[in-house]
Amino acid sequence: MKRKTDPVQFVWVQNDTGNYSERLKESLEAKKRVISLLMEMALTEQQEKPVHLLG
User: Fold this and answer.
1) Measured distance CA(25)–CA(22) in Å, rounded
2) Which ranges in 1-55 belong to alpha helices (H)?
């Protein structure tokens, strides 16, 4: 028994290399700010509530 498959279509997308590097840089900066904020929040929470290790 043959399996019927749908035809595959490809779409050509023109690369915009000049804008890509700028967007990549902005994305990395945003990620750094988020990580920094999360680390600051974790540090603040750790200082407010001492962590008790089980063991």
Assistant:
1) 5
2) 17-48
Q: What is the Cα–Cα distance from 6 to 49, expressed in whole angstroms?
A: 58
pTM of the complete model: 0.50
Side-chain half-sphere CA neighbours of 53 within 13 A: 1
Measured at the CA of 54, the angle between CA 52 and CA 55, to 5 degrees, comes to 135
Tens-binned pLDDT, residue by residue, of the chain (55 aa): 566 777 778 887 776 667 778 888 999 999 999 999 999 988 887 777 666 667 6
